[in-house]
Amino acid sequence: MKRIRPASLAFDICNYIGLALLAALMVFPFWSVLVSSLTAPHLVHEGAIMLWPKQITGIAFETIFNTPNFIKVFQNTIFITVIGTFVSMVLSVMLGYPLSKKRLKGSQVMIFIVFFTMMFHGGIIPSYLIVKSLGLMNTLWSLIIPNAINAFNIIILISFFRTLPEELEDSARIDGCNDFGILFRIMVPVSMPILATLTLFYAVAQWNMFFQAVMYISNPNNFTLQVLLRQLLLVLTSDAIAASLSEDAPRIGVTVKLAMIVVSTVPILLVYPFLQKHFTKGMMLGSIKG
Fold first, then answer.
1. Are 221 and 72 in contact (CB under 8 A)?
2. Which of 65, 108, 242, 286 has its CA 20 to 30 A from that of 72?
3. What distance in Å separates the CA atoms of residue 102 and residue 97, rounded to the nearest whole number?
4. What does pLDDT average to in each consecutive run of 10 residues of the chain (290 residues)?
5. Considering only CA atoms, which of 9, 276, 289 is closest in space to residue 155?
6. Is residue 173 part of a domain?
7. What's the domain range around 39?
């Protein structure tokens, strides 16, 4: 049996304690928000710091869930997250793989164009005019198509594909695979770590879509969750509305704000455990070389 040296054991103990404290430090803010959102509004209004809910109530969540069109808006957000992430991943792979091949004529020029878009952007007004000219205004596709490809993610994909041995492609061609067969039968399966990582990036970006939704959509039936929560927050903090309600309205508004954070954060957090095992590996593999 291998003997563990006291110095090594002490280091491991200190390491675990330090990591546990760091994890607790990161988890505590969200835990505090969750606890406060389930606590009676008047206790939260007093500013008491609680580790466990007191006088548990769901009035804050009821206020959010009873908001008109909440179900429809939640469905819209899920739609743009799922479909938008799928479209983004397909287009990113279809662009990143060929650009990773230096033998492709013009690939360096195309990579420069992709990189150029990271440094310079056309601006809000040109983007708005393009979306309007395409007839995408007041549609959920206005939140998917203009944001379908992220230049930074393309650079990561290109770097990753260049780390894969060319022998994989050569053996696939010997077996009779064409370029599409090589991509979807060989390259995609062995690229799951980086694809899972970029899927998480795209999904989080789509879920948190706010500015584009405000700019392109005016129909309440096509709002996203972030826009609806913002409107609810404005209503609850409006002096005119609060004056017409009961005297507890401002206090309820405090817990509703916290419940909004939970509602907008928990669904996307549920996706992370399924991708976590690929996340770190994918980022490291995509950064080996440029």
1. yes
2. 242
3. 11
4. 69 88 87 84 70 79 83 91 93 90 84 85 85 90 90 89 83 81 84 86 89 88 86 66 48 77 83 68 46
5. 289
6. yes
7. 6-61
